[in-house]
From TrEMBL, chain B:
EC assignment: 1.2.5.3
Pfam families in alphabetical order: CO_deh_flav_C, FAD_binding_5
Domain FAD-binding PCMH-type: 1-177
This protein's record includes keyword Protein biosynthesis: no
First-tier enzyme category under EC: oxidoreductase
Organism of provenance: uncultured Nocardioidaceae bacterium
Annotated Gene3D superfamilies: 3.30.465.10, CO dehydrogenase flavoprotein, C-terminal domain, Uridine Diphospho-n-acetylenolpyruvylglucosamine Reductase, domain 2
Protein's UniProt name: Aerobic carbon monoxide dehydrogenase (Quinone), medium chain
Cross-referenced InterPro entries: CO_DH_flav_C, CO_DH_flav_C_dom_sf, Diverse_Substr_Oxidored, FAD-bd_PCMH, FAD-bd_PCMH-like_sf, FAD-bd_PCMH_sub1, FAD-bd_PCMH_sub2, Mopterin_DH_FAD-bd
Keyword Transport belongs to the record: no
Annotated keywords: FAD, Flavoprotein, Oxidoreductase
GO molecular function terms noted in the UniProt entry: carbon-monoxide oxygenase activity; FAD binding
Top-level division of the source organism's lineage: Bacteria
């Protein structure tokens, strides 16, 4: 084998296309399509009266207007399922009051932005003109906004959901409160994180084409799961699944919001396309994304912790309230993740966690990169800092004392993780990671820096935060690998790509396994015409799941190639190797006649039907052995072609970890908060491509900084989102994102053939925790709520001065 | 986010432009750099039926550095003014203010006169116009007039420019010799509208004593606030007396709380940034 690509900084093969503007995103497609626009609720909570379309009907270019009534009649006449509420994707026994929206509102709206009327017209301009002339009678109802109001239950989001409570869930390893009570020291903390959102640059979008002759539907959608959208669309439209194909074009970011499916528009657009017999497209605009996609992070936590003189945890009891918005189609994944991943690298003593998932009249909540972990990490790390402060112990020392030791791996927390499987860490060396971080940031030298800064009238602080991330959740992912007769290797996996570099990463793996040059490998993702069974891209799972699947498949294909080549070369398969796409007898030079055969030729030989269309087929004839008239051209159990499909399905998640340290400066006069240094130590097992990995970390850190210092959803009490634009929802610009200093540790996962763990979400997880820790250190008073703005810091200073 | 239907006009002279504005009255809007107007139209918060694009009007493209003032045509982009060395030599405060206006990409399209007419309460160039005793030249199909900075800003997003009127230029006075200026601001992110911004102009006499000190604040009220702080100057070389500064500012600013900052914090910033701006301006005046 030539130099291994695995572990190399292979430049991303996607980039030349994407950075030269040759990407194909959803809105680049379907210029001939009709356009959809929606009349959305301006109220957070209201009953819907009459819908008057008379002003709209004479807008030139209007094609159709649909309301919920049309879904009802469609269901009655055509047997579709369009009038039913959208599915509750992930039910759970504790989710006793799950409510999901209808594709178009049925009598009541529960958040600003909920779709009420669908308009289809010749283009988006006309569709919006017509939508603007449709008058909906709303009878406003009192809105429930914020955890406090939801919790007090005086006003209800859904009349049949008492107390606004969708679920209460408890997990415990014993009587944690008793353990706290019995501990020599204890603390109580209230900790809060506000809402933010995935906010991909490209919003959602759907294009559907109905082929009346074929009675089939081709859907393009900007999703993180094309296979599941396919199932959902077929079910909703009552079409046989084989009449629906879903293709994911280039996707301009997902960060979680596009794993939710089907979005109302994802079923309405195909439905309208079928009804109208025309291609229909909808491209979400930014305001729509703010008010009708999904948010995340809003949680309020109350913690009781008991510990010994050394700061070791004896008992940890956490109650928290999760604001999941108007509906809960994605179930309890986020709060379940918080309640389990909160533990990070620590042994909590006796642990109990209870959460309540609450309805509010706001946009729904679905996982956003990190998915409940940033909140959990914030809680646990604030607890660590509080213990350190109370005991007067260095913050790294308290953490070290509570770490799970490497020799305790695999470590079972005896809790149930998000996938319904054991929360059991497979590997990791937390003390080693912490040591690397201390070195990287210069933890021990900071006191001197602080003194020097103080002498100059400057305030600086250092903080850190540690996390563990369950990645690569199942149930499975598959890969298909085929060698073409020209030696090209075509790889397909069903999950999607949103710009992460999956094509490059998967090609590296396959190229290594098959012994072919990198540029001979072509990877397709997220196209149900190529691959039918897949789960999706979320939960930091692609390298683990599809990486393992394509590696296993490539190994299988390699075996077959060796068998066929061995026949042709009259050698034994064990004596063969593949170098640069040539199968040869080990140790021979590739020039010798009949001692090597290229993979393309092997592919030709694998197929007994061999018209001499091309050079490869002609070349193959020299190897073809005379047919044995007694044997069938294809032996039983064999198949033509040099290809294979394999699935990887692990018994549990694999747990990555990392630790961040931050140095901040806070301006004594203006209260500005500046990040001076941001250091990351990262352990995601074996690294496939360090450059792609660093890119993932950089992006995650940027979002972590956003969540800590800039982003929040500003809801007024009446449920209006006050900052639904990029002017007022402050994502950090490149000017606000610090240089990220990275060091890696590699503790391979024993769970998969590559030893890899997920890395996609990691960078964002400890942002709020680490930055809060650093601000607290600079200011000398506790930070219990994130994000924090200069204005809030100003008021905190005033509180703590008086 | 698509604008409602409108008719686009592209006049090639100011006469033609004001004639169009007369003809369409309230239903017409001038399109300059479009950096404020186009987003409003896309969000359907503004729905003019006629757009009069002044970008091709040759007569509005000029920047003239005169003996007493700098005259900036209505089609001149922020970035061009910002980078003009002759302008910088004559009135450093123009560049000092402009670098705080939005991001380079927006400055490449947005116009300085457009920003004055748009009258955002946080617009830096409004403060600059006030500090430099500026004037805006307005023209309609029937009339021309000049409005002094002090009378130009009527309230949030409201300037003295009436329907049918085109702002053809703004004139910024050259500060007297011995002057120094500065602009400091604090925004949530680099390039955002400021939570508070302060321009300062300090003039010193023969003995380097402060003969005049003025600040103009943005983001802390309905419009830019010009405050003469000469009386707070402690004397040659000395800093400004803080209690006096605070008192002078207090009556002139009326910050409000919004999602980015509380009124109290803005009030605090106003004083801190005023001190900083005056310090820098004074240093430059003395240099
Ligand atoms: C992200 C972002 C950040 C920004 N940050 C800042 C900032 O920090 N500080 C700041 O000052 N500005 C900021 N701006 C606004 C920017 O400076 C705009 O360029 C400016 O406000 C308007 O100038 P324009 O040429 O783009 O005007 P347009 O958008 O074309 O017009 C704005 C309004 O003024 C009217 N108008 C324009 N020119 C004339 C004229 N000659 N006669 C009569 N009416 C006229 C138009 O009809 C319209 O009503 C920001 C803009 C954006 C998009």
């Amino acid at each position: 084998m030539s130099t291994r690509l695995f572990g190399q900084r292979v430049p991303r093969s996607e980039d030349p296309r994407l950075v030269t503007g040759n990407g194909r995103y959803l809105d680049d497609l379907g210029h001939d399509a009709l356009a959809a626009a929606f009349v959305r609720s301006p109220h957070a909570h209201a009953r819907i009266g009459d819908v008057d379309v008379s002003d709209a009907v004479d807008v030139e270019g209007l094609v159709a207007v649909y309301t919920y009534e049309d879904l009802v009649s469609d269901q009655a006449e055509h047997g579709s399922r369009m009038a039913e509420a959208l599915p509750l994707l992930i039910p759970h026994p504790t989710l006793t009051h799950g409510r999901t929206p209808y594709p178009l509102a049925n009598g009541e709206v529960n958040h600003v932005g909920e779709a009420v009327v669908m308009v289809v017209a010749v283009d988006r301009y006309v569709a919006e003109d017509a939508a603007g002339r449709i008058h909906v009678d709303f009878e406003p109802l009192p809105a429930v906004v914020g955890i406090e109001r939801a919790r007090d239950g005086g006003r209800l989001v859904h009349e049949d959901v008492p107390g606004n409570v969708a679920a209460v869930m408890v997990q415990q390893t014993g009587d944690a409160d008793a353990a706290v009570d019995a501990a020599p020291h204890s603390l109580e903390l209230e900790l809060e994180i506000e809402r933010s959102a995935s906010m991909p640059m490209e919003g959602k979008g759907v294009l559907a084409r109905w082929d009346a002759d074929d009675q089939s539907l081709l859907v393009h959608t900007s999703t993180q799961t094309s296979t599941s959208v396919r199932q959902a669309v077929a079910a909703k439209l009552a079409l046989p699944v084989d009449r629906v194909e879903v293709v994911t074009p280039d996707v301009g970011g997902g960060f979680g919001v596009k794993i939710m499916h089907p979005w109302p528009e994802e079923v309405l657009v195909p439905w309208a396309a079928r009804r109208l017999g025309r291609a229909v497209k909808w491209t979400e605009d930014r305001r729509e994304h703010f008010v009708s996609s999904a948010h995340e992070r809003g949680q309020l936590h109350r913690v009781r912790v008991g510990y010994d003189d050394e700061g070791r945890l004896l008992g940890l009891s956490v109650r928290f309230w999760h604001d999941h918005g108007a509906y809960i189609p994605y179930g309890l994944i986020v709060p379940i993740i918080t309640s389990t991943q909160l533990l990070g690298p620590y042994k909590p003593g006796v642990y109990r966690v209870e959460f309540t998932s609450l309805y509010t009249n706001t946009v729904i909540v679905t996982p956003y990169r990190g998915a409940g972990r940033p909140q959990g990490c914030f809680v646990m790390e604030r607890v660590m800092d509080a213990i350190a402060a109370e005991r007067g112990i260095d913050r790294t020392v308290v953490r070290e004392r509570n770490f799970i030791r490497p020799e305790e791996m695999p470590y079972d927390h005896h809790l149930v993780f998000q996938d319904g499987r054991a929360l059991r860490y497979d590997s990791g060396d937390f003390p080693a990671s912490l040591e690397k971080l201390r070195k990287l940031v210069g933890w021990d030298d900071f006191a001197a820096f602080r003194e020097q800064a103080r002498a100059e009238g400057r305030l600086v602080g250092i903080g850190l935060a540690c996390y563990v991330e369950g990645t690569g959740v199942g149930p499975y992912e598959g890969g298909h690998v085929r060698v073409e007769s020209d030696g090209t290797v075509v790889v397909s996996t069903g999950l999607t790509s949103q710009g992460q570099g999956h094509q490059t990463m998967l090609a590296q793996i396959v190229a290594d396994e098959l012994g072919v040059p990198f540029d001979r490998v072509r990877v397709t993702t997220g196209d149900t015409r190529r691959f039918k069974y897949a789960v999706g891209t979320f939960a930091s799972r692609t390298a683990v799941m599809s990486g393992s699947a394509v590696a296993m498949t490539a190994r299988r294909v390699r075996e077959k190639a060796m068998r066929i080549a061995a026949d042709a070369l009259e050698a034994s398969p064990e004596d063969l190797e593949i170098v640069d796409g040539q199968v040869r007898v080990k140790g021979t030079s590739p020039s010798g006649a009949n001692v090597s055969i290229d993979l393309g030729t092997v592919a030709v030989l694998s197929n007994p039907l061999r018209y001499a269309f091309d050079d490869a087929a002609r070349r193959a004839t020299q190897f073809a052995s005379p047919a044995d008239p007694a044997r069938a051209p294809i032996s039983p159990g064999d198949a033509p072609g040099l290809e294979g499909t394999e699935y990887y399905s692990p018994t549990q998640s694999t747990f990555a970890n990392g630790m961040h340290a931050v140095v901040v400066e806070t301006d004594p006069d203006t209260c500005e908060i500046k990040i001076l240094r941001y250091c990351v130590v990262h352990d995601c097992g074996t690294i496939v491509n360090p450059m792609i990995l660093e890119g993932q970390i950089h992006g995650g850190v940027a979002q972590g900084v956003g969540g800590a210092l800039y982003e929040r959803m500003e809801y007024a009490d009446d449920g209006q989102l006050l900052n639904a634009s990029f002017m007022d929802f402050l994502m950090p610009y490149s000017t606000e994102v610090p240089t990220v200093e990275i060091d890696h540790l590699e503790t391979p996962s024993p769970l998969n053939p590559l030893g890899v763990k997920g890395a996609g979400e990691a960078g964002v997880i400890p942002g709020s925790a680490a930055i809060a820790s650093a601000i607290e250190d600079a200011e000398g008073f506790p930070i219990r709520r994130m994000p924090i703005s200069p204005s809030e810091l100003f008021h905190l200073r005033q509180e703590h001065q008086s | 986010m698509k604008p409602s239907p409108f008719t686009y006009h592209r006049p090639h002279s100011a006469d033609e432009a004001v004639e169009l504005l007369r003809a369409y009255g309230d239903s017409a809007k001038v399109l300059a750099g479009g950096q404020s107007l186009v987003p409003l139209m896309s969000m359907r918060l503004a729905a003019p039926e006629h757009l009069v694009d002044i970008n091709r009007v040759e007569a509005l493209q000029s920047v003239e550095v005169g003996e007493d003032e700098v005259r900036v045509g209505a089609a001149v982009r922020h970035s061009r003014l910002e980078r003009d060395e002759e302008v910088y030599g004559a009135v450093p405060l123009l560049r000092q203010g402009l670098v705080n206006v939005a991001h380079p990409a927006i400055r490449n399209r947005g116009t300085t006169v457009g920003s004055l007419v748009h009258a955002d309460p946080a617009a830096e160039m409004a403060a600059v116009l006030l500090l430099l005793d500026g004037v805006v030249e307005l023209r309609s199909a029937t009339d021309s007039r000049e409005v002094a900075a002090a009378d130009f800003f009527l309230g949030p997003m409201q300037s003295a420019t009436g329907p049918g009127e085109l702002a053809v230029a703004a004139r910024f006075g050259r500060p007297p010799p011995g002057s120094g200026s500065a602009f400091v601001e604090l925004s949530r992110r680099q390039g955002d509208y400021a939570m508070c911004g302060v321009g300062a102009l300090v003039t010193t006499g023969q003995e380097s004593e402060i003969t005049s000190a003025k600040v103009a604040l943005v983001g802390v009220g309905d419009g830019p606030a010009l405050v003469d702080v000469t009386s707070a100057a402690a004397g040659p070389g000395g800093a400004f007396r803080e209690p006096q500064l605070a008192e002078l500012l207090a009556s002139q600013i009326a910050p409000e709380s919004d999602i980015h900052a509380s009124a109290e914090y803005r009030r605090h910033l106003a004083l801190v940034l005023t001190r900083r701006a005056l310090g820098q301006a004074h240093e430059r005046a003395a240099a």
